[in-house]
Amino acid sequence: MMFVLGDYRITGRGASGIAADVESAVGAGALRPGDALPPLRELARELAVNPNTVAAAYRLLRDRGVIETAGRRGSRIRSRPATAPRETIRIEVPAGVRDISKGNPDTALLPPLAAALAAAAERADRSPVLYGEAPVDADLARLARAALDADGVPPGPVGVTSGSLDAIERVLAAHLRPGDQVAVEDPGWGSMLDLVPAMGLRAVPVAVDDEGPVTAEVRRALRAGVRALVVTDRGQNPTGAAISADRAAELRDLLADHRQVLVIDDDHVNGLVDLPLHCLSAATEHWALTRSTAKAYGPDLRLAIYTGDTVTADRVRGRHRLGAGWVSHLLQRAVVQLWETGAVDPAAVARSYGERRDALVAALAERGVAAHGRTGMNVWVPVSDETGAVAGLLQRGWAVAPGARFRVRSAPGVRLTVSPLTSADIGPLAEAVAGVLGATGAGRYG
After folding, report:
1. Helices (H) and strands (E) in the chain, counts
2. pTM for this structure?
3. Are 300 and 117 contacting, i.e. CB atoms less than 8 angstroms apart?
C-alpha cells in the first residue's frame, strides 16, 4: 500500500517498513526538512493498517532523529535529520583559498606516534590482551585519575571510550529515554547538536557567553524539565568560552535544587589550554566528565577517558562490554607512553594556540569587529548575514565555517580556526573579515 505526500508516496505494511520507507526518502531528498507527515489515522486508513502501526512507525522515526512531533500540530521531518548531519553544511574550497573552517589541531603541535605505538605493540607481543581481561589499562587509569585529582575532579571510576562523543552518548543512554529533554549549549558543538535528536532526545538550547552557559538560561531549562545538562568546561566549540570560577559556583548552586538532573562535563581540550578547570561534576546525583586525546595527541587515536558517579560508570561500562567490549589496549598503551614520556608540553601548546587566537581577536577589535575566543583553537565572529559573510570571505581567499553548523536559536556567526594560521596571516585575515562585515553592516562594535 502507499500514501502520496507531495511528489512522494509513502509505502509499507508494518511499522518497521513504513519507518524505513520514510527514512530512505529523507536520505534520498524525496522528503525534505520541514515536510509535514500525514496524521497517523489518515495514513493508517490509506495504507490499510492499524493506527497503532503508524504510531509505532512514527515513534521509530522520532527515536532515530528523523522526525519531530508536536502533539496536535502533527509530525514533520526535522530541520536537521540525523541522516543529514551538520558537518554537511560546508562550502567547497577552491584552489588557492586558505581553509580555516575544519576545526582541526595544528599538526605541527601533535607528537609523533611511531615510538609510542611501537612500544605498545612490543608489550602486546610479550603479553597479549585476551578476552575477559580488565577493559582499562591499569597505568592509563592511574595516570588519568591522578590528572583528574590534580584538577579537582571528584573521585570516581575511570573508563575509556572511542572519543568524547562516544562517552557522552553512552552516558546519556545510561540514564535517559527517547523524548527526554537535554540542555545543550547554543551555539555549541555541531556533533552534539546532531547526537541529541538522533538519540530521540529533545534539545533545549542554552545561551553561552565567554564564561560558559548563562545561568539564567540554565535556570529556564531546568524549570522546563530537562533531564540532563551537557556543558563544555574549556575551549568551547565554536566560541572559545571557558567556565569561570564564579559561573561554576552559580551553576552548582542552581543544580543543588535539581539533584535528579544528569550533568556531563566535556573537557575535550584538556592538554592544550592554560585556564584552570571549573567543572560541575558531582553537583547532582549522577554526573560524568570526559577528556579526549584528539586535540592534543591526534584525532585518529580515537580515545577518551571518562569518570563519574559509580552508578553511571557501571552502567556505561556494562553496556560497552556487551557491544564493542573495550577500546584497544594498543591505543591505551600508546597514550600511556605519550603521557609518561612527556611527548606534549601542554603549556607550550596552549601558548601557541593562545598567541594566535589572542592576536586575531585583538586585530579584529582594532578594526572594530567584535569576536570571541577565550580559550582553545577557534574564534567566533557574530554576523548579521551569515551567507554573505561566508561568501565574501571566500572571495577574499578565506574559507570559514558557517555558523549554522553550530546554532539552534542563537544569532548568526562564523567560526575561524586559528590552527593553520601564522603570525603573518593575522593582519590579512582581520582585514578581510573587517572588509566583509563593513560591506554587510554586521559584527561591528558600538
Report:
1. 15, 17
2. 0.84
3. no
